[in-house]
Specification:
The complex is a heterodimer of chains A (388) and B (263). Chain A has 388 residues and is mostly helical. In chain A, 68% of the residues lie in helices and 4% in strands. Chain A folds into two domains: 254 residues, no CATH class; 98 residues, 3-Layer(aba) Sandwich (D-Maltodextrin-Binding Protein, domain 2). In chain A, helix 1 crosses helix 9 and helix 7 packs parallel to helix 10. The two termini of chain A are 31 Å apart. With 263 residues, chain B is an alpha/beta fold. In chain B, strand 7, helix 8 and strand 8 form a beta-alpha-beta unit. Chain B is globular and about 55 Å long. Classes of the chains: A mainly alpha (388), B alpha/beta (263). The interface between A and B is medium-sized, with 24 and 26 residues.
Amino acid sequence: MRTVLTIIKKEFYRFFKDERLWLTAIVLPGVLIFAVYSLMGGIIDSVQQQEEDYFPTAIVVNMPTSLSPAFSQAFKLSDGDVDGGKQLVKERKIDALIVFPERFDELIAQYSPASGQPAPNVEIYYDSSEEHSQIAFYKAESMLSAFEDAASNMFDVNRPAAEAVYDFADSQSSSRMILSMIVPMILLMLLFSGCMAVAPESIAGEKERGTIATLLVTPVKRGYVAVGKIAALSVMALLSGLSSCIGMMLALPRLAGSGSGLTISMLTVGDYAALLGVVLSTVLVLIALIAIISAYAKSVKEASGLVVPVMLITMLCGVFSMFVTGVANIGLFFIPIFNSALIISSIISGTMTGGALAVAICANIAFSAALVFVLARMFKSERIMFNR
Amino acid sequence: MEEYLKEEYLKVENLTKTFRLSRKQRKTEGGLIVKTAVDDLSFTAYKGEIFGLLGPNGAGKTTTLRILATLIKPDNGDAFIGGSSAVHDEYAVRSKIGFLTSDLKLEDFFTPDYLFDYFSELYSVPAETAAKRKAEMFSRFGIDKFASVKVANLSTGMRQKVSLVISLVNDPDFIIFDEPTNGLDVLTAKTVTDFILELKARGKTVILSTHIFSLIEKLCDRVGIIIDGRLAALDTLENITAGKSLEERFFDIYSQFKGGEAL
């Protein structure tokens, strides 16, 4: 046991005494994720704001009296005819040309769907490849749709009223539902990168440089070497993963926008404890998998290539977890990594059960223990350890 | 002295080791699929003796040493070190030996000071003993002057001194030296050879593998000549040389062993 601690201590010393290593593996991921997500949120906000604030230009031919005030408010109108208007839209000098049939108000008042005649047609000419023209189109289309609804109103659905609340979901729970689909994949990928930042270097790197043989010639049991390495690397990868998570959580409200109601306090202390438990057990599995691949590889470079299938599986686990809706079959929680994605999703959506959490964590720990055993066997194999 | 030398410490019995060659290796080995690196090798080394293993490159010296150090297992046969089997009791063997070879490298990031403590802990050397041993060895080899410098920043000679000291953290009774003076300047090489003689004087058993004749002549009590994985000759240095230089005798033996094949 003492030798396991000695190995852990040495791995920590190697990692934490090397500023470049811990800065790039721990500090940088969190800072980068925060910066990138915040920037993305800022850009999305400003684009949305621009769209809201934009006052499109348009030519309206045969403007009906009933719609004139609304259109004058929504558009900067100018005079023109159909052909001239089309040319101006093509030249991007105005955003849209809206052509009403002559005597539009009369036509719609007389029109009956039962007559079998085609309904009066309003034409909106625009250029969908131009952003402002697109905005003008949507604005005009929505105004006309609303007008049509009002003109032929037979019944309402969920009529807006001061005290009427039809959707019981608050903005936060809607956001949580969306997040529960996205976060598992993002989190798994962040944890995976954390593991990749430390594991191949510590095992394939030592093998490549010939320093692991110096360790293997000592009387330390191979199992202790495997446990020591995996324990130390897991802590480092966990720190890297936590840094990414903190960066992500701090940036999330900015990314989702202020109306989303997303804050760090949306999860309880219990949720965070469950999240930590499942993340730790996932890190153990990922580290053990990458360690085995690294022990097999002849160099760090080869290990980075061989690890790609594990990365894809991890990503797919995140993706497939999106399709598991409602209460998942308990059997699914026995599948390492996939169970983590399901648990992370359920924690965020607020549907996690203690049983599923326990099964997932135990399954991950048992799987990691089996992998540690395999790693120890690999350390014993001269063909694997000395195949240079 | 003779009686003292008669106490067996290493007994190598019928060691055989084969390797399956990779496609690339087969091209240079004339299409051979399996190469016999060590072929039914047997010899004994006595306590307080420096035993030399002499042979050309690829003769099987390093493979033999790796088997003795328990890094690899033989296909057949066994080696007993201080009574412990290298095949069945590798942990006991590892705690009894020291192995100095260019195959075992030290991590560049660490200092000699840290590495000595680290390996002492791995060998379960009590802290007090380790500290005392470190002070003695560092001062003996002048490592104390660069004990806090990372291995990456040390010269070849300095690194070899550190490797030597690290290989002896457990004060082993049996020490394997694989080409211990390779790449060293004359001063550092002398420090190393003097130390090997000092180890012998302290009753340690030393296996020295080299292709440098003068090193064998200077240090070894007995010599085993390995050619193509087999023991071509084994005797005391005096009996092997028989009035000639070791170099001359080696080429005679090589030629005889190869059936008159010219070098």
